[in-house]
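Gap junction protein structure dump, as promised
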Amino acid sequence: MGEWGFLSSLLDAVQEHSPMVGRFWLVVMLLFRILVLATVGSDVFEDEQEEFVCNTQQPGCKPVCYDAAFPISHYRFLVFHVVVLSAPAALFVIFAVHQAAKPGRGGAPGQRARRLQPFYVGSVVARIAAELGFLLGQALLYGFRVQPLFVCRRRPCPHRVDCFVSRPTEKTVFIHFYFVVGLVSALLSLAELAHLLRKGPPARPGCCQRPQERGPAPGQPAGAAEGPCGPHPRGDLTV
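structure tokens r here:
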């Protein structure tokens, strides 16, 4: 659980920059992915290869048939899925800490948020791409049902060999659960991206939407006035 705790702490640091929908994604990631995979997933798939039984004693036949049935172990595939999904968020946290540590780059919170938002949006886009890619990969590699019987005809097996998978129903239920969680996670990520694009970057500090008219500063032409966001022509001001 140590490596999962480190990953959870990295993801938890992202919530400082996330909108509310992004925090919902974080809850789904921590509870229904990392926690479930660390506590339940390891028990479901720990005997995957040991309990893969084939009706032959031919040396080398069982490993070849297992490789044909499961090109990548279910558990390793799901762990790799979580790591890749967490990578954009972890890279963003590292970048944000690096920017805050630069001399003269701290600034006000609004300025920091404005500088970091494009990189956060990029991390959300990378997360969506990884999510959809792994969902497609899971469907193509394993489908949605673990078959109790796998028929193998690969060499060095001398003939058709029947191999049997342990606890296929339990593994099927787990795969369905994990796929549904992936769909929910992808929808939350898309909603977060839409929210960020609609909201736009934070307003620049000191600027207002309707600048008030001020008198001309010394040396400034009489036809211009300066508001909080800079000089404005007199004709553009709202009286």
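The two ends are 64 Å apart (CA to CA).
lmk if u need the other ones
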